[in-house]
Structure formats: structure tokens, C-alpha cells
Design goal:
The chain is α+β, with helices and mostly antiparallel strands. Strand 13 (163-168) and strand 14 (172-178) form a beta hairpin. Helix 28 runs antiparallel to helix 29 and helix 38 runs antiparallel to helix 39 (1330-1348).
Length: 1486
């Protein structure tokens, strides 16, 4: 399943994907010589650099094929590699040097190796079941009893190293207690069926708490069963997978176990608090042809990276349930990995780099660009340069401790790759470059000669001083002397430092004396050239840390030494005197408030010891099971100013980091910094905003800068760092002039004004597709050599005297600072025109237009100065471009125009320069508005050089081909080509032009043919008429219906006297006026009427006058009416007494018609007893009173439409008169029974009360409620309430709610009291609910008191209502006593029966019914019978009160026949006056 963005959702099954091209081509790869393995890469997307390379060290093994087990130590300070070769275990250093003292030799083959996580102790398992402990950090210990004669398959330590788990081939799993010194003690063991070789530790509890100290562990193997065990003899089976386990991993963040079987089945599950399996998922993985070759590793939180001999790496995001691919194909421009397969994989969490070994022996690396979280797609992986490590498949690849070591295992060799920086050193007149661990290339600045130093040790770094070269590693150093006359190098001395390893070293030269400065431990030692320590400077381990980076510089002002420590403390000394003198106090690398600015990676001191540049890394905390830190390079370069004791910083750019730095050998202000593109970079500004570049999109945004470059910077005083220039490190010297796709890599090695020196690598075998490699420079073939590039500000002036060089440097410095006056003053003494020209060019490059004007004046370049004055463009860059053109700085002119976005000028520049392809490209992409003019200009250019075909093509693209192409061909006399060109064209205008051309040549047949292609029917008809071929002309007009052609033919036929045909074609042409003219002139009345009806109003009126003159009034009336001349039509109807026509005319009249016409028509209809039409016309003529009176007099039925017509506009007359008219209309509607219409008119008249009364008569309850709600008048509220009471309100809660609402809004409390009284009576009569009746009566009493006001307590109505409430309340209480106190209930009922006038307040039947029900329930049938008989004696209908079944039961019990059922409803009348208001008479309006 494929999700958005090209990523696939995980799910059973995952379809097997093909390895297609990746979304972006990212890099280039080639081959490299063995023993020297520099990395190369894509020049556009990756931060490739020559300064970092991989050195390979082949391990000296007897038979590499038997070395099947390897293990890296976990301690970073001294990385060690253990290799099991047949019956021995050997330990090697990172340089490939073996430690023979710790070699183990057994009687059988070693099968398992693991280092202790906290110490240098190696645990080895052997085929006979032996377990041995040995290493540089312990004494040898072993155990041969526990695993007797069973092959050890797995050894694993927990994260703290306190427990070790061993598994053998017989299913025995043993837990040991261990420590970093080699303690070995058995805690417990488990014996399970099968062989187990996979162990992982459960470092997270189900509650989400990390558990690193003595956690539980899972183990599995060939049986396919996953067990959970601890060191307390507790072991249980957790999951039975069903097939051998190929990969067992633990997802720490989610406490999940991840299993991959040898059948490519991925299983994930977790355990709940009770230890039961939960959240289990299974899915089929896509992999290579053999699942047994599958390898997997965690590449982030929940991200499982897997290879299986395919041309891709499969990434499974188990947290988000997604997956994606990272393909090997297409990662570089030449697709150098085509056909290669990924065979092994490992991930370095510290470096965030995924390394993959391939079938052809290459190592491909990707750096993760996310500091936190899981990489979501392949966009989050930046491909790094590819390394060629072997000539056969790499079946196992493992990262060593730290960030720079990789072990690659093949069937032929065991190789350790060490990533190191190519070191450089400079001290006039020498430059030294380390080209391999055992070779240094020496370059003479003045002679431009080269010498090669062969080393007897594997060098880590080097230094220059005087005529000596120092090379060293951590254990030894050697000094080599340079013969300055013959420029040869000889060995001078060497010494060993086994007991005090070298962290850094420099050569200190002063007064012909040379000493070695050595950083070792917590000391800085000053030694002679033989390594003998003369004196030392002690560092405080707690406060300062250990010195790790040294830098020395010297000039006429002295020799200065700077050192940085492990705690990022900076110290400096003046080494000019015999005893070193500290410069200032120690300086911690901290900012404001003591906040750390980072970890110092490298320091360089300038020539006068006033400033120190620093490269810095930031330590980013890493979550997860490792809980370590990631060292991320900072995007800033820092400079420490000694005088102000402050740090300056300069941001290199987004996703760009400084890799090396250097100062000029003489000028203390100028420095250089090597810059590369890198996604995983620390940006202080983005860090504050919690954002960071996480994909390759970040690199795309900075494509205007080269991915590998050198920035030259000026340190301006103690305040700021300014950019001076940027030089690319890609060299096109090895590629063709027009081929920039393959560029040799250059490493900046020294800044010596006026040059920047680079070490450049040649291509092996002359192919640009191969990896650049460092080879033997002395041979002059296939190696590295030193080249130099003139700095931008010194172009053409590299051979001037030192005074001019200094002046130019000052000029550049002040220009960068923005101080124009000082810049000009620094060079005002220079008289050379070439120098001023160089400075002019410098001003163009730096964008200083004001200084450029002065320089042009000094150099006397009148043409450039004139062009600058003539340039009226508003942008300074455009003016600078004009100067650049006259200074032959064409590339700079282009850059300036691109920078200011003046692509129109750039287009003109390319045109003027004859670069038409570039001009067209700019027009297509950036200057679309001038695209056609550019094609036209190019076509003119092609015409000038007589390239006819291309000129025609570009005339077409410019849109001018209709005139220019024929002009071009005719001017050249190419008539045949012109005809062919026209025939091929589909453009009608071209064919029309050619037809006119042929017609001018009297070639009428050819012209007719071309007119037909051009679809020019007028010209074609004109030619036919000219040839008197009228039949053809008529056919053309009838076939194509072209108006112009039809008109031309009609005029021709008119001239020929064929009037009938002429009228026909005038009609086809839409020229009806001409057709009418001919019909009138020739008295063709039959055709005239049809023509006039299809014509416009003017022609209709003209035809109507014609008919009127001829006495044909009916036709004239019709035409006048159609033409909109109603007045004239009516006058003609009146004068000619055309009543039928008059009716038709009147029907078409509207309110917009002339009122006089409307009045006359109305009078006409009244005279002829057609009153409805008269009313209609009177209304339209605004005679509203007459229209209403006419309706009254003749009983004209008023419709809603008529009523609206008789309604005057609001502002058309006096408001009182308008209201009177509306009232009359409303009365009329009411009289005719249109109550709703009457209501509307009364409302418009402002009489809402009458409107409500009319609406009440309509009986539309919904509209009555709505109208009452909007009228907001008390009288209307009362009327609405009264009306609603006349309805079945007791069955509709909404009506009851509206009644109460209306009476309440009208404050008609008496009516509201009466309504509540009626509600109470309904509750009694209909539902016998005396409780609700009591509530209703109490509401009635409340509103009755409100209606009476003061004195309500003495009113007789209030007293009567209170008495009723007491009786109803009393009876309601009696009914409740039926269960609690039956005797009292009977007594009260008997008393109430005897009360006079109790009915209808309490129905007497309800009282008897209560007694009958009680006696019936208590089986007292005699009393029940007596009560029923009393009811009958009082003529009370039994049915509403006593159930028929009760009657039958009672009468049957006393032996009497039950009484006959009596018809009738429930007795009891409504209270007096309840409906008085409902029947209120509505006053009739007369």
C-alpha cells in the first residue's frame, strides 16, 4: 500500500518493491587505490571535501576467511578490535597494530566475542563451551565447567555491565555476575529446547520507566520461541513464533520486542503488567531472494534499517507504521552504483550515520539530518561520499567506538577504515600536506617545487617549523630536516611516547632555535628535537582539563602559542623569550552569563598573537537506550580577541559548517575558512526557535553558493567579522571548458597573500567518473599536488611589490568595512593604471559603486565612465554591470544583473554578445515579456547571416511571420520557396496575403485557390462576381453564410436588376434596411411585412409609416407596437376604431408606459364594460382611488397581484393619502373574504389592530401567532390569546405556551388568571389530576391578585378562588391518604360529600369514586354498593368515575345485577366566564 509522499504503509503483506530511481540524484562515486581511500561525492548536494579521507588498515591475519567473529571495544579513549581467527583471538589497535600480549590461543575455534561495556575486558566463547575473560583491563579468567562441550553461540552484557548472558548450542542459557575488571560468577541457568543465539535486554518497564541496572532479558533461537528471563531463576515462554529467529531487537521507546524470522516474517509484541503478550502484530516483509542474508539495525527511534542483497535499503518506521526505500542507484550523476547490491549494514548513533557495505566492496553512507525523533522519509538522509574499501563483497560492516572507525569483513580481507583529516601546515617558505598515513607532500612557495617525505610511522598529524617537519601519532614522533638549498628532506630524529601519549604537537621556532610543544595528559611540554623535555606547563585537570589542540604562529612581533583543552578553556603564551610568558589569564569558552558556547574542536592563532580562531562543536543530548550525546558541528566560526577578552562569531550559512581554518602568514586581519554543506549542523538561531533543517530541501535553498568553498574573512577590530570573498573548491581545470559536471576536488591548505593554496587530486586513469585519490606526488602522476589561485582582489597584480600588495589589502579591508574614504586613502599613492583597474574590478565584485567611479577616473577609462553616466537604471547592480562589461568582467556582469533581477538587461547583454542561446533561455525562464522580441532579434540576426530557414523559424516564434517571412523570401527573390512556405503553413492570414499577391499578378485562379484556403469568402465571392460567375458566387454565399460575401453579392444583384435575389442576399447578410428599401421601392408589400418583423425597431417604424400611408392601418399598428411606438399605435387604433388591435396593445402595456396612454386605454375598457382590465390600467397609471372605486362599484375580484398594483410607492404621495388608499383596499379585500390580503394591506396602512382582526377571521393559526409576535401591541396580544383559547389548546402544549406568553406580554393578568382557572378545570375534568389543578389554581390566584392590585386581599373573587384552592388541595391530600390512613380518608370524603356547592370545584363523582375504590380494595362490597347507589340517586353518571369491572364485582358480591351502562361524558361544566373572552365579538369595519 502506498501512502502520500511515495511512502508505503506497513501492513500484511508488504508488497515487494522494485528498486527504482530515487527522488533525487545525490552523489558520485568512483574507485580509489587501496591503502589510500579518499571520499568523493556529488558536487551539488553533498558536503564532500578532500580534507577528510578514509585510511584503510588491513589486519595481518593468516587466513582472513577463518576470521568469522569480530568485536569492537566500547571504550572510546583506546579503541580495540578483537578478531577470532581459527583457534586464536587477537586484539588490534585502530592503526592495525596487534597487541601480542593479549593474544588468546585455545584448543578449538572461538565462536563468540563481546567486550565489556564499561571496561577493556574481552569475553570469548569457544566451541568446547569454555568462557574466557581477558584484556588490557583485566587478568585472564575462564570457566570450562558450565557449558561442557557445547558450542558457545552468544555472549551479551547488559547496559551497565553487571550481568552477562551466555548461550550454547544445547539450549543452556547462563546468567553471570560480572564487572569491568573481569569478575565472573554464575548466578543461574536455564535449559530450553533448541539452540539460542539471540539475546536482548528489556531496558524499559511497562510503566515507561527506564531500567538499565540489571534488567530482564529476552532470548530466542532456532526453536522460534521467545523467552523472558532474569538473574533470579525466573524464566517463562512469552511468544511462539513458529520459525527460527533471524533477528531479535528491542524497541526501547515503546517496550516492544521486534522479531524477524528466516522466512521474512516481522513480529512485534509487548508485555502488559501481568507479563502477558499484548499488541502483537505480524507482517510479511519484502526482501531479497534469500531471507537468510537479511541484516537489520536500529537507525533511529523505532526505525529499523534492513538489507538483503538488494539494490536498496529498506527503512521500516515501526512507530508510525510506515516504510520507505533508500536506493543505491542514481545517488550520483554517473550512477556509479548501478547493479551493485547492499550486503551489510550498521548505524552509528553518535555520528547519526548509516553505513552500508555493498557486493562490489564499496561503503555507502547516509547522514541522518534529524537531531530528535525518527527520520520520516528518504529526504531526511543526506548521502555522503562513497568509499571503495575492497574488491569483493563486504558481508559484515561494524562501526567502532566513537565516530571515525569502521570494520569491513570480506572473504579475502579484514579492513579497518579510519576517517581522518588530511593535515596541512604552512610556514614560509614551505607548505606541507599529509597525503596518507605514511607520506607528506612538501611544497616550496618560492620555487614551486615538490618533495615527498616517506614516513616510518602511521602519522596522525604534522607540524612545520624552520627547516623541520614534525610528524606524530599518539605513541611516537619523528622529525625530518629540510635542506633549503637542494630542497631535499632527511630524517633527523624520532622518539617514542608509550607512557605519555601525544594529544597534540607543534614546532616552535625563534632565533634559529626549534623546540617541540607537546600536549600530553595535563601538561604542555617543551622538548628539544629529540623529544627530551626541557620544561612543562601544568594544567588543572578539574578546572582546565587536558590540552587537546595547539597552534603556533610567528612574525616580527614574536612567536605565539595557543592551546585549547577538553573543558573548552583557551590559554596563550608568548614564546619569544627563553621562558614562555602567559598572555592574559585562562579563558573559558563562555558567553554572557557564563553560558557555554560549545566544545572547541580546533584553534588557530594569527600572526601577531592578537586573535585566535576556533571551530566549535555542539553536544546535543540523545534520548533512548544510549542516552548519550551527539557532536554536531556549529555553523559559526568564532574568533577570540585578546585585547578585549571577547569572542566574535560569524555564521557561515544555513546547513553549512566550517571544516578548517587558517590565518594569513603576515596580515593579522585576514583569515580563511573551508566550508562544506551539511544537513546535520547546529544553528544557534534555529535552535532558539526549536527548528532545524531536516531534509535536503534545506540544501536546495542555498544552491547559489558552492557546496564546498573557502570563505576569506576580515576580522574588523574587536567588533565584527566581515566576508571578503568566496572561492569554490571545485576545480574545472581537469574538465573540458564546457564540461562542468566533473570537477576535481581541491583542499585549501594555506592563505598566503596574494594567493590561496590548494591541494588538488588528479583523476585516476583520466576518467572523471572515478573517485579522486591521493597517490604518489613525487611521481607526478595520479597524485596530489599543490596549486594556487590568485585572490579576487589581486587578480592580475600577483607580481606587484610588497608595498602595493599591502595597499591593496588595506583597500580591500576598508572596503569590506564600508569605509570608503579610508579605502581610497590607502591607495591614493598608487600610480599604476593596472592597479587601479584591479581595484575597479574589486569594487565591481564587492558592489561598491562609489569607489568604482573614483577608480575609473584614476585609470582614465573614459568609455566605462561615460557608460556609467549614461546608465539611468535605478539599481546599483545594473550600473556595476555596465562597468563590468567595459572592464571585460563578463561573468561578474551576469552575476550582478542576476542579483538585481534585471533579466531584461541581461537578455540584451547576451544578444549584444552574440550568445543567443543564453538570451533565449533567459527570455524563456526569467524574461517572458521579452520572449517574442528576443526571437525577432535573433531572426533578424539570422537574416543578416543569410540563415533563411532558422530565420523563418524564429520569425514564427516571434509572431511576426505573417509579414516578415514573406518579406524575407520576396526580398531574396525566393518565389518558389515562398510558395512552398505558404503551402506548408496553416495560417489563414498568410494564405490571404499570398492570394492578394497572386491577384495583383492577375492570377485569379491561383488567388481564388488561396482565398479558399484562407477562408476569405468575401474575396472569393468578389473574384467570382468579377468573372461574372454568379452561380458560383451564390453557392459560396449559401454554403458559408458569410455576411460580407452575401452583402457584396446582393449589391451586385441589385445592380443587375435582380431585386428578388438581392433582397434574399441582403437578408442573409443581415442588412435588412437595404432589403426593406428595395421592397418599398418595388411595392413588394408581402415581403415587406416579413422583413420588417425580423428587422430592428427603426426599420419596423419606417415600414409602419409605409403601411399607414397606404391605408393598411392594422399592419401599421402591429409594426408600431413591435417597434415600441405604443402611443402611435394606440392613436392609430382610436382613429381607425381597431378595437381588437387595441386590446392586444393594451395587454402589452406596463407600468413604464406613458400614463396618458394607460388612462386612455382604461377609459376605453370602462366604456366597454371590461372593468378588470380597466382596473389594471388605472393602477399602472397611478390612478389608485379611481381603481379602488371601480372595484367597489363593479365588484371586481381583487387578486394579490392587483392589490400590489393598487399599492402606491412609499414616497410617491402623502403618507396619509397613501394609508387611506391602503385602508380602502384592505376593506375591499376583507369584504371579498381575502382576510390575509386584507391583513397585509392594513399592516401597510399602519393599522395593525384591524390587520389582526382580519387575520383572526382567516383562521390561520401559524400566521396569527407570527403576526402577534411581530406586532408587539397589547391589544393584538390579547386578541391572539383569545383566539388561541378558542382552539383545542389543552391538547397542544405550544398553543398553551403562546397563550401564556401573549397574555403575559399584554399584562392582561385577569385573562391570564381566567386561563389558568380553565387549565385547572381541564385537569380535573379530563385527567382527575387534582395536584396539577392545585398548581394551576395557585397561578390563577397569583395573576388575579396582580390584576386587582392593591386591596386584592379584600376582593370577593380572590376569596372565592382561595376557597376553591383549599377544597381542591384537601381532596388531593385525601387521595394520598388512601394508603397511609384509610380511615381518615373515608372520614374526610364523607364530610366533603355532605358539603354544599362543592361541585364543580371538586366533582362529587370523584369523591364517591374514591370511596368505592377504597371499599372495593378492602373487600367491603356492601359499603361500596351503598356508595354506588348514592351516586345513582344523585343522577351521577357512573361510567366516567367507576370502572365497569369494579361494578360487576361489587354487584356480584351483594347478589344484585349490575346497573345498565349510561351514556354521557364526564360531567362538570367549565367555570363561569371561562369562555367569555373567547367569544368576544370582533368589530366589523364598514
Amino acid at each position: 500500500r502506498v501512502s502520500k509522499g511515495g511512502r508505503r504503509r506497513l501492513g500484511p503483506p508488504i508488497a515487494r518493491a522494485r528498486a527504482g530511481p530515487s527522488r533525487r540524484r545525490l552523489g558520485a562515486r568512483g574507485t580509489a587505490r587501496r591503502r589510500r581511500l579518499p571520499r568523493s561525492g556529488d558536487r551539488r548536494r553533498r558536503g564532500e571535501r578532500m580534507s577528510f579521507i578514509f585510511f584503510d588498515q588491513q589486519l595481518s591475519l593468516s587466513d582472513p576467511r577463518q576470521a568469522t567473529v569480530i568485536a569492537w571495544s566500547k571504550v572510546e579513549d583506546v579503541p580495540l578490535l578483537a578478531v577470532a581467527e581459527a583457534e586464536s583471538v587477537r586484539i588490534f589497535r585502530e592503526e592495525g597494530e596487534e597487541l601480542p600480549d593479549y593474544k588468546q590461543t585455545g584448543r578449538c575455534q572461538c565462536t563468540a566475542l563481546t567486550w565489556h561495556p564499561r571496561g577493556r575486558v574481552l569475553a570469548a566463547g569457544w566451541e568446547d563451551g569454555s568462557i574466557t575473560f581477558q584484556g588490557p583491563g583485566s587478568v585472564k579468567k575462564d570457566d570450562r565447567e558450565v557449558h561442557q562441550r557445547a558450542r558457545i553461540r552468544c555472549i551479551a552484557f547488559n547496559p551497565m555491565g553487571t550481568r552477562m548472558v551466555t548461550c550454547d548450542a544445547n539450549g543452556l542459557v547462563v546468567v553471570w555476575k560480572t564487572d569491568h575488571k573481569g569478575l565472573l560468577k554464575q548466578e543461574c541457568n536455564y535449559r530450553k529446547q533448541g539452540s539460542h543465539d539471540k539475546v536482548i535486554f528489556r531496558t524499559m518497564t511497562p510503566s515507561g520507566q527506564p531500567k538499565m541496572d540489571n534488567p530482564e532479558f529476552f532470548f530466542a533461537g532456532d526453536s522460534g520461541i521467545v523467552y523472558l528471563a532474569d538473574d533470579m531463576s525466573c524464566c517463562s515462554e512469552k511468544n511462539k513464533i513458529g520459525s527460527p529467529v533471524h533477528l531479535l531487537e528491542y524497541l526501547h521507546e515503546r517496550d516492544q520486542v521486534v522479531v524477524v524470522t528466516d522466512k521474512a516474517l516481522l513480529v512485534m509484541f509487548s508485555l502488559d503488567n501481568e507479563g502477558k503478550v499484548s499488541n502483537e502484530t505480524q507482517m510479511k516483509l519484502s526482501c531479497g531472494p534469500d531471507p537468510r542474508l537479511l541484516q537489520g539495525v536500529w537507525a533511529g527511534a523505532g526505525l529499523l534499517a534492513m538489507t538483503s542483497n538488494e539494490s536498496m535499503v529498506r527503512m521500516f518506521n515501526l512507530v508510525d507504521d510506515e516504510s520507505y526505500l533508500i536506493a543505491l542507484q542514481g545517488i550520483d550523476d554517473v550512477n556509479s552504483l548501478a547493479g551493485d547490491k547492499a550486503t551489510s549494514i550498521d548505524f552509528n548513533p553518535r555520528k547519526r550515520v548509516l553505513a552500508v557495505g555493498t557486493k562490489e566492496g564499496r561503503v555507502v553512507q547516509w547522514r541522518c539530518s534529524t537531531l530528535e525523533g525518527t527520520p520520516k522519509s528518504e529526504e531526511n538522509w543526506q548521502v555522503l561520499p562513497i568509499v571503495s574499501a575492497a574488491d569483493c563483497a563486504i558481508d559484515r560492516i561494524r562501526w567502532g567506538p566513537g565516530e571515525n572507525l569502521i570494520h569491513c569483513r570480506t572473504e579475502r580481507s579484514q579492513v579497518v577504515l579510519t576517517e581522518a583529516q588530511l593535515n596541512t601546515a604552512v610556514q614560509r617558505p614551505y607548505i606541507a600536506v599529509q597525503t596518507s598515513p605514511t607520506q607528506v607532500l612538501l611544497h616550496h612557495l618560492e620555487r614551486s617545487g615538490h618533495a615527498t617525505i616517506k614516513l616510518g610511522l602511521s602519522a596522525r598529524c604534522m607540524a612545520l617549523g624552520g627547516n623541520y617537519v614534525l610528524v606524530w601519532n599518539s605513541k611516537q614522533a619523528s622529525v625530518h630536516e629540510i635542506d633549503e638549498h637542494n630542497f631535499t628532506v632527511s630524517d633527523y630524529s624520532s622518539f617514542s611516547r608509550e607512557n605519555s601519549p601525544i594529544a597534540a604537537a607543534v614546532l616552535i621556532t625563534h632565533d634559529m632555535e626549534v623546540h617541540i610543544g607537546i600536549a600530553s595528559g595535563a601538561r604542555l611540554e617543551i622538548a628539544n628535537l629529540y623529544g627530551n623535555v626541557i620544561r612543562s606547563v601544568q594544567f588543572s585537570h578539574e578546572v582546565e582539563g587536558f590540552p587537546v589542540s595547539l597552534s603556533v604562529s610567528g612574525s616580527g612581533k614574536g612567536v605565539f602559542l595557543a592551546a585549547s583543552t577538553t573543558k573548552s578553556v583557551l590559554r596563550m603564551w608568548n614564546m619569544t623569550r627563553t621562558q614562555e610568558k602567559p598572555i592574559g589569564n585562562l579563558r573559558k569558552f563562555e558567553g554572557v552569563g557564563g553560558r557555554s558556547l560549545g566544545e572547541i574542536r580546533s584553534v588557530r592563532v594569527n600572526s601577531d598573537g592578537t586573535r585566535v580562531s576556533l571551530l566549535v562543536d555542539q553536544l546535543v543530548k540523545q534520548s533512548g537506550v544510549t542516552q548519550g550525546v551527539i557532536r554536531v558541528p556549529d555553523t559559526r566560526i568564532f574568533v577570540y580577541d585578546v585585547e578585549t577578552d571577547a569572542f566574535l562569531s560569524y555564521k557561515i550559512g544555513t546547513s553549512r559548517v566550517p571544516m578548517s581554518h587558517m590565518w594569513d602568514t603576515k596580515d593579522a586581519r585576514l583569515m580563511a575558512c573551508e566550508v562544506v554543506s551539511q544537513l546535520l549542523a547546529y544553528d544557534a538561531e534555529e535552535a532558539q526557535q526549536d527548528v532545524a533543517p531536516t531534509s535536503l530541501e534545506s540544501l536546495r535553498k542555498t544552491d547559489e553558493e558552492p557546496p564546498h568553498s573557502v570563505k576569506t574573512l576580515f576580522v574588523a577590530g574587536s567588533e565584527r567579522i566581515l566576508l571578503q570573498d568566496t572561492l569554490t573548491c571545485s576545480d574545472t581545470a581537469t574538465a573540458g571548458v564546457h564540461d562542468t559536471s566533473h570537477k576535481a576536488l581541491r583542499m585549501p591548505v594555506a592563505l598566503v597573500v596574494p594567493h590561496m593554496y590548494f591541494a588538488r587530486q588528479q583523476m585516476l586513469g583520466g576518467s572523471a567518473a572515478q573517485t579522486p585519490a591521493v597517490a604518489d606526488a613525487a611521481s607526478g602522476q595520479d597524485g596530489a599536488f599543490i596549486i594556487r589561485q590568485v585572490l579576487r582582489d589581486f587578480a592580475g597584480l600577483e607580481h606587484v611589490n610588497p608595498e602595493t600588495t599591502s595597499a591593496l589589502l588595506n583597500f580591500s579591508y576598508h572596503l569590506a568595512c564600508g569605509d570608503t574614504d579610508l579605502a581610497y586613502k590607502s591607495v591614493e599613492g598608487v600610480k599604476s593604471k593596472s592597479v587601479w583597474e584591479s581595484m575597479s574590478k574589486m569594487c565591481v565584485k564587492t558592489g561598491r559603486l562609489d569607489v568604482a567611479q573614483k577608480c575609473l577616473g584614476q585609470m582614465g577609462h573614459a568609455r566605462a565612465a561615460s557608460a556609467l553616466r549614461a546608465c539611468k537604471e535605478p539599481e546599483d547592480d545594473a550600473k556595476l554591470a555596465a562597468i563590468a562589461v567595459h572592464l571585460d568582467m563578463f561573468d561578474d556582469a551576469v552575476k550582478r544583473l542576476e542579483k538585481c533581477g534585471r533579466y531584461d538587461i541581461l537578455n540584451l547583454y547576451y544578444q549584444a554578445n552574440g550568445e543567443w542561446d543564453k538570451a533565449l533561455e533567459i527570455a524563456k525562464t526569467k524574461d517572458r515579456i521579452h520572449l517574442k522580441p528576443t526571437h525577432f532579434a535573433y531572426a533578424q540576426h539570422l537574416e543578416a547571416v543569410e540563415n533563411v530557414q532558422e530565420a523563418l523559424s524564429h520569425f514564427e516564434l516571434s509572431g511576426t511571420y505573417r509579414t516578415e517571412s514573406p518579406r524575407l523570401l520576396c526580398s531574396l527573390g525566393l518565389t518558389d520557396e515562398l510558395e512552398s512556405y505558404i503551402d506548408r503553413s496553416q495560417d489563414e492570414q498568410l494564405h490571404r496575403w499570398y492570394a492578394q499577391y497572386l491577384e495583383s499578378k492577375a492570377n485569379l485562379d491561383g488567388a481564388a485557390r488561396e482565398y479558399k484556403k484562407a477562408r476569405d469568402w468575401l474575396s472569393l465571392c468578389r473574384v467570382a462576381c468579377f468573372n461574372r460567375d454568379l452561380d458560383t458566387a451564390q453557392k459560396i454565399c449559401e454554403d458559408h453564410q458569410d455576411p460580407a460575401a452575401c452583402y457584396h453579392l446582393a449589391r451586385h444583384l441589385e445592380a443587375e436588376g435582380r431585386v428578388k435575389d438581392a433582397i434574399h442576399f441582403f437578408q442573409m447578410a443581415g442588412r435588412l434596411s437595404h432589403a426593406l428599401r428595395l421592397a418599398q421601392e418595388n411595392n413588394m408589400d408581402g415581403d415587406l411585412m416579413s422583413l420588417a418583423l425580423s428587422s430592428d425597431p427603426a426599420n419596423m417604424a419606417q415600414a409602419a409609416r409605409h403601411y399607414e400611408q397606404r391605408g393598411q392601418h392594422s399592419k401599421a399598428v402591429v409594426l408600431y407596437q413591435k417597434a415600441g411606438w405604443q402611443k402611435r399605435a394606440l392613436e392609430l387604433c382610436f382613429s381607425a376604431k381597431l378595437f381588437d388591435s387595441l386590446r392586444k396593445v393594451a395587454e402589452d402595456l406596463s407600468a413604464d408606459s406613458d400614463p396618458e396612454i394607460l388612462a386612455r386605454c382604461a377609459q376605453f375598457f370602462m366604456e366597454h364594460k371590461q372593468h378588470d382590465k380597466a382596473v389594471h390600467l388605472l393602477s399602472m397609471s397611478h390612478q389608485y382611488e379611481r381603481a379602488v372605486e371601480l372595484c367597489y362599484e363593479h365588484s371586481v375580484q381583487v387578486t394579490e397581484e392587483m392589490a400590489e398594483r393598487m399599492t402606491p410607492e412609499k414616497n410617491s404621495m402623502d403618507a396619509a393619502a397613501r394609508s387611506e388608499i391602503l385602508a380602502r383596499v384592505a376593506q375591499l379585500c376583507k369584504k371579498q373574504g381575502s382576510f390575509q390580503l386584507a391583513c397585509k394591506k392594513y399592516t401597510q396602512a399602519g393599522d395593525k389592530l384591524k390587520a389582526m382582526k382580519c387575520l383572526l377571521q382567516s383562521g390561520d393559526t401559524e400566521k396569527i401567532i407570527f403576526f402577534a409576535g411581530t406586532a408587539r401591541q397589547p391589544d393584538i396580544y390579547v386578541l391572539a390569546g383569545n383566539y388561541l383559547q378558542s382552539l383545542q389548546w389543552h391538547n397542544d402544549p405550544d398553543i398553551m405556551k403562546n397563550i401564556i406568553q401573549f397574555y403575559s406580554k399584554a399584562k392582561a393578568y385577569e385573562k391570564l388568571s381566567t386561563f389558568y382557572d380553565a387549565c385547572a378545570q381541564v385537569e380535573i375534568d379530563e385527567y382527575r389530576d387534582y395536584d396539577k389543578a392545585t398548581g394551576a389554581l395557585q397561578e390563577s390566584l397569583k395573576y388575579l391578585a396582580k390584576s386587582i392590585g392593591s386591596g386584592a386581599e379584600n376582593d370577593h373573587k380572590v376569596h372565592a378562588l382561595q376557597s376553591r384552592i383549599e377544597l381542591v388541595t384537601k381532596f388531593a391530600g385525601v387521595r394520598k391518604l388512601a394508603k397511609s390512613n384509610p380511615e381518615e380518608m373515608v372520614q374526610v370524603c364523607l364530610e366533603m360529600v355532605e358539603m354544599p356547592d362543592i361541585d364543580p370545584t371538586v366533582r362529587i363523582g370523584d369523591i364517591f369514586a374514591q370511596l368505592v375504590e377504597h371499599y372495593h380494595d378492602t373487600q367491603n362490597f356492601q359499603e361500596a354498593y351503598r356508595c354506588v347507589e348514592q351516586m345513582r340517586q344523585r343522577n351521577i353518571v357512573l361510567t366516567p368515575y367507576v370502572d365497569q369491572a369494579q361494578l360487576v364485582s361489587i354487584y356480584g358480591a351483594v347478589g344484585q345485577p349490575p346497573p345498565r351502562q349510561e351514556a354521557g361524558g364526564a360531567p362538570g361544566a367549565a367555570p363561569p366566564g371561562a369562555d367569555d373572552d373567547v367569544g368576544e365579538e370582533i368589530e366589523e369595519d364598514n
